[in-house]
Design brief:
heterotrimer; A mainly alpha (about 350); B alpha/beta (about 260); C alpha/beta (about 290); A: about 350 residues; mainly alpha; globular; B: about 260 residues; six-stranded mixed β-sheet; four-stranded antiparallel β-sheet; 9 helices
Chain lengths: ~350, ~260, ~290
C-alpha cells in the first residue's frame, strides 16, 4: 500500500509515468505465467497439475499414453500458439494505434485481416473445385498459406496506393483502407453467396477463430513473423511516441518517418497475416488490450508495446481456457470469448472517469 | 552557418517561394515577416528539411541538407511548430521528454523537467497536455525544442532553433518572455530563425529582418533599415503607420517600450 | 542381456497394435463400451441395433432418438473438439465420413483409439452397407445383417410402390431460404435420393450437392412441390416461402404445395429412410393414398 502511494505520489509530481509502466510490466509477466499455467492444466479431460509435474520432472513414463498425448498434442501446442498469437495481436494493435494516431485503430486497418479473410474464403469455397489441383498438392497447408499470402498482398496493395513520392500519408492509408475493405468485403460476400452448405459452415467457424488446430509445425511457421514484430519494439517505440506530435515534428526530432511506417506496417501485416492464417480471425484483442493499458499507464510506447504483448497473450490464453471448458465436451470458438470478455470491460472503462480523460483531444 | 540558396517551391504552377536566398548566421536573431500566404512557413519548411525545394538547395555548414539523415539533422536544428493537438493523453513532461530523447540525453526525464522550468512551467509536469490552454501548450512545445537543443553551441558548433509563429496563442507577457529566451539563445552563439506576425515585436527582437511578399524576398537587413512606410505599404497595403502616434483618443500599447527592455 | 524397460515395452506393443492388425482393431472395437458417435445417422443406427447405452457422447446432428440428445455433446460434426472427445474416455469412435476438422481427427487417430469412418454416399442403396459397417464396428454383425436385410426389403417395397406413380411431381428441396436465397439440393445429394425413392422428380438437376441457385434457375425449375426441413430458427412458413420472387410464380405456389419434414428423418439416409420416403410419397401424392 505504502509503496503504491509513494509511487503514485511520485507520479503526480514528476509527470513521468515510467514507474507505473514498469510496475505494469512486472504485473503482466506474472499474469502471463498464471495464464500459461492455467492453459496447460485446464481442460475437459482432467489432465492437470500432477500430470504437468510428472511431465516436467522427466517422469513422462508415469503418464498414460492418452494423457501424454493430450499434454503434448493439445495443451502445450495450444498454449504456445495462444501465447504467440495473443502477443502478436496485442502489440500489433498498439503499433497501429500509434502509427495512425488513433486509439480505435486495430491491426486490420492495414488491410491484412480483410485480405486474409478473402483468401481464406476463396480457399474454402473454390478449393474443392477451381483450385483443386493447388489444394491437393498443398493439402492442409492450403488454407493457411492462402490466408497469409492474401493478407500480405492486400497490405502491399494498400501501402502502394497510399504512398506518393515516397511519402505514406496516414489519412490516405485510412481512406484507401476503407475502399479496399469494401472491395474485399464484396468479393468475400460474392464467394459466400456462391458457397455450398459445407463451405458455409467451414467459413462460419473460420471467421470465429479457434486455436484447436495448434501443432508444432504451425507454431514454427508463425514464430519468425511474431518474433519479428516483437524484435522491432525497441526500435519503433521512440518513433511512435514522436509520431503522435505529427509526421513533421517526428521528422524534426530525428525519426526516419517513412522507414518507420514501412517497417511497422510490414511487421504487423506479417505477424497478423500469420496468426489469421493458423487461427482464423480473432477480434478485439488488438483494440482492447492496448487501449486498457493506455488508460492505466499512459500512451508512452516504451511500456505500452511490451505490456500490450504480454496483456494480449494473457487474454488469449485465458479466453482459450474458457473456450475449452465452458461447454465441454464441445468447444466455443475463441472469437466469441474475446468479444464477451472484452467488450463490456472496454465500455465500462470508456464511460468511467478515467475513460473520459483518455478521449481528450479526439 | 545555415544557407538557403535560391530556394523555389512550386505547387500547381504557382511559386510559393520564389528564388529566396537567406543566410542564418550564428549569434544573430533572424526574423521573417510578411502577410499571410507570403510563403514564410513554406520557406521555413524548406530550411528545416520538411519540404524538398523544387529548385535551389539548403546547406548546413556547407553540407547539403539532402545528404543529412534525420538523426544528423535533429542534432543541427529543432523546430517549434505552430500548434499541435495530440490524439493521446501525454503529460507535459512526456511531451518535453521526447525532445530530450531526440537530443540523446542520458537522463531525459530530468532534462525535460529543467526545460519546463525554463519556460516557466515548473510544476506542470504531470498535467495532461490536451488539458492545457493554447498558450501553455505552446510553451510546452518550446520546452521540448529546448530539450532537443539545450545549448546554443555544442562542441564548437552552433545549434539552430526555428520558431514558426511562436507567439500565436500567447498573451503579451508570455510573448515577450518567449522571444527573450530565443534572443538569449542567439546571443549565446546559437542560430535562431523565427516567423513573426507582430511587426513591433519583430522590430524589437530581430537582428536581421527578412520581408517576404508573394514568395519573394523583397527586403532584408536590420529592422531600422528595412521597416519604413514604403515597404509596409507595398507589402501590407496600409500607409502612414511607421513611427507615427495614433489619434489622441486611441490608447496605444507598445510592448517594445516596456520598462527594462533592452536592445 | 539387459531387459527392455517397461515404458519401452508399452510403446512397442502399442506400435504393434496399430501397425500389424487392422482385423484385430475391429475385434478390439467390437466390445467397446464407451462409444463416441459422430454423425446423426451413425447414432441412429447404433440405437436401432439396441446398443444406445454404449454411447457416451454424440455430436450436434445426432437428434434421433430423443435419448441421444441427452448425451454429452462434443460439437458440430465438422468442428468437433479433440480434447472434448477424449475427455469422455472413449474406447471407440465411429464417425460419419466428412467429420472434422482434420486436426482434431488426426489427434484422435494419434491417441491410439480406434477411429472407424463410415462412408455415407448420398444414395439409398448404400444404406444397408452403412448399417452393416456400423454393426461390425460395434460387434453386432448378425443383428446388423438382420436390420440391413429388413431395411433393404422396405426400401425395395417402397421403390416398387412409388415407381407406379405415372406423373412424377417435380420437387424442390430447399436446405435454406434465408435472405430470399434458395439453397437447393441438386443431384448427388441425400435430398435427391429421398425424393426419387419417394416417387418424385428432383426439380433441380443442373447442380450437384447443396448449392445456392439464382432466382431464374429456380423459376426455370418450376417445382410442383417445395420441400423443406422442419424446426430450426430459420423456419419459414408456406406464405413466406411463396412470397419470395423465386418461388412466387411456381406451380408449387399456385397449389400451395409446401411440405416440411424433420431434417435427420428426411435426409439422414439411415434405418428410417424407407419410412421417410413413404411418408414423403404420401405428402406428394395425397390423392393416391386416399382410402
Amino acid at each position: 500500500m505504502n509503496t503504491l502511494a509513494l509511487l503514485a505520489g511520485r507520479r503526480a509530481v514528476s509527470g513521468d509515468r515510467s514507474a507505473i509502466g514498469l510496475l505494469m510490466l512486472v504485473a503482466l509477466v506474472l499474469l502471463l505465467v498464471l495464464a500459461i499455467f492455467t492453459s496447460i492444466v485446464v481442460g475437459p479431460t482432467g489432465v492437470g497439475l500432477p500430470h504437468l509435474l510428472d511431465y516436467l520432472s522427466g517422469n513422462a513414463a508415469a503418464l498414460d499414453s492418452q494423457n501424454l498425448l493430450i499434454l503434448e498434442a493439445v495443451r502445450l501446442p495450444r498454449t504456445a500458439i495462444g501465447l504467440l498469437i495473443g502477443a502478436a495481436l496485442g502489440v500489433s494493435g498498439a503499433m497501429m494505434q500509434g502509427l495512425f494516431r488513433n486509439p480505435l485503430a486495430d491491426p486490420g486497418i492495414v488491410g491484412v485481416t480483410s485480405g486474409a479473410a478473402l483468401a481464406a474464403v476463396t480457399a474454402i469455397v473454390l478449393g474443392p473445385t477451381l483450385l483443386f489441383p493447388l489444394q491437393s498438392v498443398l493439402g492442409e497447408q492450403f488454407l493457411p498459406l492462402m490466408a497469409f499470402l492474401g493478407g500480405l498482398a492486400n497490405t502491399f496493395l494498400l501501402y502502394a496506393i497510399a504512398t506518393r513520392h515516397g511519402q505514406t500519408s496516414t489519412t490516405a492509408l485510412i481512406l484507401s483502407g476503407i475502399a479496399i475493405a469494401a472491395m474485399t468485403g464484396a468479393a468475400t460476400g460474392l464467394l459466400i453467396f456462391m458457397a455450398d452448405d459445407r463451405a458455409l459452415r467451414d467459413i462460419t467457424f473460420w471467421s470465429l477463430g479457434s486455436l484447436s488446430g495448434a501443432s508444432t509445425s504451425k507454431i514454427l511457421a508463425i514464430l519468425p513473423f511474431v518474433g519479428f514484430v516483437m524484435l522491432i519494439i525497441p526500435f519503433v517505440a521512440k518513433g511512435l511516441d514522436a509520431l503522435v506530435l505529427g509526421d513533421a515534428a517526428a521528422f524534426h526530432m530525428g525519426v526516419p518517418v517513412q522507414r518507420l511506417k514501412r517497417l511497422t506496417i510490414l511487421a504487423v501485416a506479417a505477424a497478423c497475416g500469420a496468426t489469421v492464417a493458423v487461427a482464423g480471425s480473432i477480434g478485439f484483442v488488438g483494440i482492447i488490450v492496448p487501449h486498457l493499458l493506455r488508460l492505466a499507464i499512459g500512451p508512452s510506447h516504451r511500456f505500452l508495446l511490451p505490456t500490450s504483448a504480454l496483456g494480449g497473450a494473457s487474454l488469449l490464453l485465458f479466453a482459450d481456457s474458457i473456450a475449452r471448458t465452458i461447454v465441454a465436451p464441445a468447444e466455443l470458438p475463441i472469437g466469441i470469448i474475446t468479444a464477451i470478455l472484452g467488450a463490456p470491460v472496454f465500455l465500462m472503462l470508456l464511460l468511467g472517469r478515467n475513460g473520459r480523460s483518455s478521449m481528450e483531444g479526439l | 552557418m545555415i544557407r538557403a540558396r535560391e530556394i523555389s517551391i512550386i505547387r500547381s504552377g504557382r511559386a510559393l517561394v520564389d528564388r529566396v536566398s537567406l543566410d542564418l548566421t550564428p549569434g544573430r536573431f533572424t526574423v521573417v515577416i510578411g502577410p499571410n500566404g507570403a510563403g514564410k512557413s513554406t520557406l521555413l519548411k524548406a530550411i528545416s528539411g520538411e519540404l524538398k525545394p523544387d529548385h535551389g538547395e539548403v546547406l548546413y555548414n556547407d553540407r547539403r541538407l539532402t545528404a543529412l539523415s534525420p538523426i544528423e539533422l535533429a542534432a543541427e536544428r529543432a523546430v517549434l511548430p505552430q500548434s499541435t493537438a495530440l490524439s493521446f493523453p501525454f503529460t507535459a513532461l512526456e511531451v518535453v521528454r521526447m525532445g530530450a530523447v531526440a537530443h540523446g540525453s542520458l537522463e531525459p526525464g530530468l532534462a525535460a523537467r529543467q526545460a519546463l522550468t525554463r519556460v516557466g512551467l515548473g510544476g506542470f509536469e504531470a498535467r495532461s497536455y490536451n488539458a492545457l490552454s493554447g498558450g501553455e501548450q505552446q510553451r510546452v512545445q518550446l520546452a521540448r525544442v529546448l530539450a532537443q537543443m539545450p545549448s546554443p553551441v555544442s562542441n564548437g558548433k552552433p545549434c539552430a532553433i526555428y520558431l514558426d509563429e511562436p507567439t500565436a496563442s500567447l498573451d503579451i507577457g508570455h510573448q515577450i518572455s518567449v522571444l527573450e529566451l530565443a534572443r538569449d539563445f542567439a546571443r549565446a552563439g546559437g542560430i535562431v530563425l523565427a516567423i513573426l506576425h507582430d511587426l513591433n515585436l519583430a522590430a524589437e527582437f530581430a537582428d536581421h529582418l527578412a520581408i517576404l511578399h508573394k514568395g519573394r524576398l523583397v527586403c532584408e537587413g536590420r529592422p531600422e533599415n528595412t521597416i519604413d512606410d514604403t515597404i509596409i505599404r507595398e507589402v501590407y497595403g496600409i500607409s502612414g503607420t511607421v513611427g507615427r502616434l495614433p489619434a489622441a483618443h486611441i490608447p496605444y500599447v507598445l510592448p517594445q517600450s516596456r520598462q527594462s527592455a533592452q536592445r | 542381456m539387459r531387459s527392455v524397460p517397461l515404458h519401452r515395452r508399452l510403446v512397442l506393443s502399442l506400435a504393434c497394435a496399430l501397425v500389424i492388425a487392422p482385423q484385430a482393431t475391429l475385434a478390439q472395437s467390437a466390445d467397446a463400451k464407451r462409444i463416441v458417435a459422430i454423425g446423426g445417422t451413425v447414432t441412429e443406427i447404433i440405437y436401432a441395433l439396441g446398443e444406445g447405452d454404449r454411447i457416451v457422447a454424440v455430436d450436434t446432428t445426432s437428434s434421433y432418438p430423443a435419448e441421444a440428445t441427452q448425451k454429452p455433446n462434443i460439437g458440430y460434426v465438422r468442428q468437433v473438439s479433440a480434447e472434448g472427445v477424449l475427455s469422455q474416455k472413449p474406447d471407440l469412435i465411429i464417425a460419419e465420413a466428412g467429420a472434422g476438422p482434420v486436426d482434431a481427427m488426426n489427434i484422435l487417430k494419434a491417441s491410439g483409439l480406434t477411429l472407424i469412418s463410415i462412408p455415407s454416399p448420398p444414395d439409398t442403396s448404400a444404406i444397408p452397407a452403412k448399417i452393416r459397417a456400423v454393426g461390425e464396428a460395434i460387434g453386432r454383425k448378425d443383428k446388423a445383417d438382420e436390420l440391413a436385410l429388413k431395411v433393404e426389403a422396405t426400401l425395395k417395397a417402397t421403390a416398387e410402390k412409388t415407381a407406379s406413380t405415372t406423373t412424377k411431381k417435380k420437387v424442390l428441396f430447399a436446405l435454406s431460404l434465408a435472405n430470399g436465397r434458395v439453397m437447393a439440393g441438386g443431384s448427388q445429394s441425400s435430398a435427391d435420393a429421398i425424393i426419387r425413392l419417394a416417387g418424385g422428380e428432383n426439380a433441380v438437376s443442373s447442380v450437384s450437392g447443396y448449392k445456392p441457385l439464382t432466382d431464374e434457375a429456380v423459376i426455370a425449375a418450376a417445382p410442383d412441390v417445395v420441400l423443406v426441413m422442419s424446426g430450426g430458427a430459420m423456419q419459414m412458413t408456406a406464405e413466406q416461402a411463396f412470397a419470395l420472387p423465386a418461388l412466387a410464380s411456381s406451380p408449387a405456389a399456385r397449389n400451395k404445395a409446401f411440405v416440411t419434414m424433420d431434417g435427420l428423418y428426411l435426409l439422414g439416409l439411415g434405418p428410417r429412410a424407407a419410412e421417410a420416403a413413404a411418408e414423403l410419397h404420401g405428402k406428394l401424392y395425397p390423392e393416391a393414398t386416399k382410402p
